[in-house]
Amino acid sequence: MHKSIESLIRDAEESGRPLPRVVLETEAAETGVAASEIRARITRTLAVMRRAIDEGLKGEARSASGMTGGRARTLWENGPRLLGPRVTETLARAISTLEVNAAMGLIVAAPTAGAAGVLPAVLVSMDDFQHLGDDKLVDAMLVAGGVGGVIAQRASLAGAEGGCQAETGTAAAMGSAAVTWLAGGTHPQIATAVALTLQGMLGLICDPIGGLVEIPCIYRNASAAMQAIAGAEMALAGLDFPVSADEVIDVMGEVGRRMPSAYRETAMGGLAATPSARRLVQIRPSSRPSGFST
């Protein structure tokens, strides 16, 4: 597995291989699993992502706590009001997956359950708007996986270790890289998209109300999907960023290590510690977990 975005891109350029193929063949070599089997597995994963979105948009999934359910459908049916259907539908798709997760439905951790809505939302929305097909989306997921692998090694993917920046921040960076690749972005543009996206997520705390992956998680997934699109749009337009993607990732790791424990998924600080949140948990006994989930 590549330990930096720089080495991942250098491998692609020096070997003359497309970036998805580099990630795929690296995975095959390290795991001993045939490349064809890996692609088949990712295709199945994509299908699970689609089903989760569809299930969430029905508005029927409800969490045991009663805190979440129906918001994705409400947004889908009552928008758009500002920038058109593409934005509204992407937001709704991100929320829908997190609502299915909260209702104990089947989702894909991408890279975690708490950040599972970002990558599906941007990929499915891109396919819906541009009719790309599953093969292209599988390639994009390989690119996203390559970026996620680098972040896992250089920083963290866990909210309990690095705050929400490690979860939804990583998901946004993965989604931005995938979208930039789908749009025909160059290798430098893909790296810039990762840097631009992740810098906007630095310092984001993990403060789930009641310790549950529900509020504010579902909304942060929607925001992160927009952050991913913003990073990709700016990079594709030729905007630069003076700090490399790898350095931004390293900063995220440093921020996570310095972050007080109250802001790392303990539900002891941030929004989880507000009077409103405490009252909400008190009137919903079933929302008091025995442990915390990511």
Question: Topology, pairings included?
Answer:
Elements: H1 5-15, H2 19-31, H3 35-57, H4 71-78, H5 85-102, H6 118-130, H7 134-154, H8 159-162, H9 164-182, H10 187-199, H11 217-236, H12 245-258, H13 275-282
Helix pairs in contact: 1-2, 2-7, 3-5, 3-7, 4-5, 5-6, 5-11, 6-7, 6-9, 6-11, 7-9, 9-10, 9-11, 10-11, 10-12
Summed up, what is this model?
This protein is mainly α. It has helices at 5-15, 19-31, 35-57, 71-78, 85-102, 118-130, 134-154, 159-162, 164-182, 187-199, 217-236, 245-258, 275-282.
Explain this structure.
- The protein has helices spanning 5-15, 19-31, 35-57, 71-78, 85-102, 118-130, 134-154, 159-162, 164-182, 187-199, 217-236, 245-258, 275-282.
- By secondary structure, it is mainly alpha-helical.
- The chain has one domain: 2-methylcitrate dehydratase PrpD (Orthogonal Bundle), CATH 1.10.4100.
- The protein is globular.
- It starts with a helix and ends in a 12-residue tail after the last helix.
- The model is unreliable at 285-294 (pLDDT under 50).
General shape: globular
Tell me the strand percentage band: under 5%
Give the termini separation: 24 Å
Pairing-aware structural class of the strands and helices?
mainly alpha
- For the secondary structure, the number of strands is 0
Low-confidence stretches: 285-294
CATH architecture annotation? Orthogonal Bundle
Summed up, the domain count is: 1
Rg of Cα set? 18 Å
Order of helices and strands: HHHHHHHHHHHHH
The number of helices is 13
- Round the mean pLDDT to the nearest integer and report it: 95
